[in-house]
Amino acid sequence: SVGRAMARHAGPRLPLIVKNLIPTLSSVFDSQRITTTAFFAELLSSNVVNDLLLLETVLDALTGRQKDACVLVRMLALRGLGNVASGSPEKVRKHGAKLLASMVNGMDDKDDPHNLVALEAMSSLSKLLDHVEERDIQSMLLHIAIRIRPFFDSEQPDLRQTSIVLFGNLTKFSEGNCEVFFEQILNGLVTLLLHLQDPKPEVVRVSVPGLDPPPRRGAAGLQLFPFSVPQACKFALRMCGPSMGCEGLCDMFLNHLREDRSLHYGEFMNDVCKHLMQSYPEMLNRLISTNLFYFKSNWVDIRAAAPMFIGFLVLHVAEDHSQQVDLDPLLSGE
């Protein structure tokens, strides 16, 4: 891109260029605001803005675009703020609170029918999490977990994948809010296990820190990563395992959900349900009711996995807990 090329080859001229471009961020023309925001976003992926003392200027400029009337400007502004994680990672901690607030605001964007802003916010937040202060993320951890949960079942595979990866990354900060975040893990557990059977799009656009294979360029300059929704679920479940308080389940997730290992889903779910009913038998009805929701899923493989999941739960529950099962919704399939 032009931004990256200029960062590499025209460093000394950048301060004047940035100064002259900042007024166009308030232009009445969408095209000018989009172009300038995209240029600034690419600049932030290089450390040259830090070397030239431009980081704060460009950060402030992009932060000011969060309420722009144009969805694409808002999306590109968040992409730029997320690029600080690669361009100037040592500065993320200093600006962590501002960057995190921008990502949360992006996820809460109400004027974004296709969720482009939310997608960029989730992807950028995953990149930033390795560099922020734990105290900055703790206060908004629960809000983020609740906010991204509906995206797990989105019709858009990139939203499913990005939100699930972000959820896995959030578990790194769950120690201080163990009980609260454990509840969020339980809320998402059935969905993550069922989406191991998710339709497998070959490519979705997202950045997964520490897990990405080398990127290739796609249409419109998007970064493309061959990282499917089931792989995202494997990653999230591996990350959730240590917080679940069940050593057998944690070991299963770590050993069976490796990226390089194929999964025999039926056998895996049988063993998962055995551990769940040994450790959390009181959760039986809750797990069953969540699975019932997926009996009407648009995805055939998930629709088939849900009743199998219930069957294994009932198979492994102890007799004194089996009385809690409400047979009516099971028999009616609703």
UniProtKB/TrEMBL annotation:
Please name the taxonomic classification of the source.
Eukaryota, Metazoa, Chordata, Craniata, Vertebrata
Q: Which organism is it from?
A: Trogon melanurus
Every Maestro/Maestro-like HEAT-repeats domain range: 59-205, 229-332
Q: Which residues cross the membrane?
A: none
Entry-linked InterPro entries: ARM-like (IPR011989), ARM-type_fold (IPR016024), HEAT_Maestro (IPR055406), Maestro_heat-like_prot (IPR045206)
Q: What's the protein here called?
A: MROH1 protein
Q: Name one GO cellular component term.
A: cytoplasm
Q: Which domain of life is it from?
A: Eukaryota
